[in-house]
Amino acid sequence: MSQTNLPFKDGQTVEVRSFEHGYRGAWFRCKIVRIYIVEETLYYSLKYLDYEKEEIHEQQVFQRFEDEEKEWIMVRPSYPSVRKIEADQKPLDVARGSWKVGDLVDWHKDDCYWSGTVVALKKNEPLQVELYPPPRGEGATYNALRKDLRPSLEWSLEDGWTLPSAVSLHSDM
């Protein structure tokens, strides 16, 4: 993938995925400080926006997790700020709040977003979110407040923002 095919530029705010143990599947808000290539590999220098004491982080834009064949894009645009976005020529309603078991969500915890599935909920109680299994996530189940959730969306160079499917979570995403 060449640098010219990516829609990102210096100074842009993006979300960056982690494969680091303990943070697998988490998305962090960052600003691109510099874009560069070393030995035909694309890197971004990133400043974490929610971790002010962190040094500039050098991120390889496409990575493999452990022994996988698939290369994953580690950067995506900032989450859409509008209530509806266009995907596959259909509007996606990204309104928050009316959750049900099986919904795919991003949970805001520790100044980053963790992707998972709502697995249990009761009226007037925190709901339970199970994080995606490795390599997409850490795989644990947590209590989460409704106000800390947003609908989970996937982003790709080919399709832009789309709704993820439960089947894709265990395959090649």
UniProtKB/TrEMBL annotation:
It comes from the Eukaryota. It holds the Pfam family Agenet. Residues 6-71, 97-157 form the Agenet domain. Signal peptide: none annotated. This is Agenet domain-containing protein.
